[in-house]
């Protein structure tokens, strides 16, 4: 979704790469990530060889980033079509509600992580954002944070790059709070969504990962606590569509 020209929006794709696309190079931000006018920071080369989950599969932390990247490379061409089909278009309402909560004003510095579109597009690592401290007014991430290997690190980075008074907003799949809806949702998720993925996108496995990754994501309360642990205050959340998704909000105070 394009931002009005009065906004300043950095759309940041969390694929674990430490370079800027040649077609969208930004002034003062070079592929080696030196500090510059945009506050780029070098990415660490250190990785821990411990295990994590990729859907219901156990993989090493080093593997997960590549596997997630392959999923989104595979589904990219049919991504928007599949979103409309899977949610019957409701995902657009969820995103509109996120924007309504954001309420940006002229001059607002926005960072949209895992978005992939915007006025300026940077590829990098959500766990080590290539920006200086206290740079942005608002940090948003929609349907992206559950794909990050270390959610706690991504939250800490969100806190670091926000200005004092800045706001964190996350739209993500969550846990359904209605038992009947939950049972129906499970059947739809595991029996229908992968089939749609195969028929429309020619990719069963990626959409099987999608539904599995949702089940692995923390509950609304657990994620709220993680956001607070990262340093945010006044953390709240709002369930949408019986908790199929939730919007979490917090402030850097």
UniProtKB/TrEMBL annotation:
Residues 1-18 form the signal peptide. Pathway: Cofactor biosynthesis; ubiquinone biosynthesis. GO terms for molecular function: 2-methoxy-6-polyprenyl-1,4-benzoquinol methyltransferase activity. It comes from the Eukaryota. It is a peripheral membrane protein. InterPro entries: SAM-dependent_MTases_sf, UbiE/COQ5_MeTrFase, UbiE/COQ5_MeTrFase_CS. S-adenosyl-L-methionine binds at residues 117, 125-126. Its main location: mitochondrion. Its EC number is 2.1.1.201. The keyword Signal applies. One of its GO terms (cellular component) is extrinsic component of mitochondrial inner membrane. GO terms for biological process: methylation. Keywords: Membrane, Methyltransferase, Mitochondrion, Mitochondrion inner membrane, S-adenosyl-L-methionine, Signal, Transferase, Ubiquinone biosynthesis. NCBIfam families: MenG_MenH_UbiE. Component of a multi-subunit COQ enzyme complex, composed of at least COQ3, COQ4, COQ5, COQ6, COQ7 and COQ9. Interacts with PYURF; the interaction is direct, stabilizes COQ5 protein and associates PYURF with COQ enzyme complex. Methyltransferase required for the conversion of 2-decaprenyl-6-methoxy-1,4-benzoquinol (DDMQH2) to 2-decaprenyl-3-methyl-6-methoxy-1,4-benzoquinol (DMQH2). This is 2-methoxy-6-polyprenyl-1,4-benzoquinol methylase, mitochondrial. The lineage of its organism: Eukaryota, Metazoa, Chordata, Craniata, Vertebrata.
């Amino acid at each position: 979704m394009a931002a009005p020209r009065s906004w300043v929006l950095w759309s940041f794709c969390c694929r674990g790469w430490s370079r800027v696309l040649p077609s969208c190079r930004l002034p003062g931000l070079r592929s080696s990530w030196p500090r510059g006018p945009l506050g780029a920071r070098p990415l660490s080369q250190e990785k821990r060889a411990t295990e994590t989950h990729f859907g219901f599969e156990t993989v090493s932390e080093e593997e997960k980033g590549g596997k997630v990247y392959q999923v989104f490379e595979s589904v990219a061409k049919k991504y928007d079509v599949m979103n409309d089909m899977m949610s019957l278009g409701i995902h657009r309402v969820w995103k509109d509600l996120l924007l309504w909560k954001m309420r940006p004003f002229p001059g607002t510095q926005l960072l949209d992580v895992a978005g992939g579109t915007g006025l300026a597009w940077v590829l990098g690592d959500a766990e080590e954002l290539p920006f200086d401290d206290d740079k942005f007014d608002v940090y948003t991430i929609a349907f992206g944070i559950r794909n990050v290997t270390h959610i706690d690190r991504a939250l800490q980075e969100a806190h670091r790059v926000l200005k004092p008074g800045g706001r964190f907003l996350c739209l993500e799949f969550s846990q359904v709070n209605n038992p009947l809806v939950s049972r129906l949702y499970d059947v739809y998720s595991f029996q229908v969504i992968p089939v749609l993925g195969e028929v429309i996108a020619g990719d069963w496995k990626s959409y099987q990962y999608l539904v599995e990754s949702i089940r692995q994501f923390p509950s609304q309360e657990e994620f709220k606590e993680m956001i607070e642990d990262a340093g945010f205050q006044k953390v709240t959340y709002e369930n949408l569509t019986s908790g199929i998704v939730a919007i979490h909000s917090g402030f850097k105070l």
